[in-house]
Amino acid sequence: MAQSGFVKVADVGELAAGDVKVVEVGSDQILLVNVDGTIYALDDICSHAYASLSEGDLAGEEIECPLHGSAFNVITGEALTPPADENIRTFEVRIDGQDVLLGPAKS
Ligand code: FES
Question: Quick check: 77 and 61 in contact, CB under 8 A?
Fold first, then answer.
């Protein structure tokens, strides 16, 4: 059952460690990432221009934008390398049984 303020966006089984998945929630495109068994959620759209981070390379906690190569920390949303200089939003995630629940933005 969904918890207040949280919506189901995926099943746990859809995201093995190292996997990414894009979900649409309202008008937002959200990137789910499994880092070593823990699922994190952040904006999928790069803060520099319009590119889907899900199409970039994931290495550990970092994902590289496919367009100009900025790296972001998928846990904190921090922009690590230029040209992006704005962090991206991260979201609360809860696991309820087999459900991945997305909550409000953390920042
Ligand atoms: S669009 Fe992502 S770094 Fe330019």
Answer: no
CATH number at 86 reads 2.102.10.10
- Which pLDDT tens digit goes with each residue over 39-95? 999 999 999 999 999 999 999 999 999 999 999 999 999 999 999 999 999 999 999
Candidate of 68, 85, 87 to mutate for ligand 1, largest count of ligand atoms within 8 Å of Cβ: 68
Gap between the Cα atoms of 98 and 77, Å rounded: 25
Let me know if residue 41 belongs to a domain.
yes
Number of domains in the chain: 1
* Inside any domain, residue 1: no
Q: Which of 67, 87, 88 to mutate to test the pocket of ligand 1 (most atoms within 8 A of CB)?
A: 67
Distance CA 91, CA 81 (A): 21
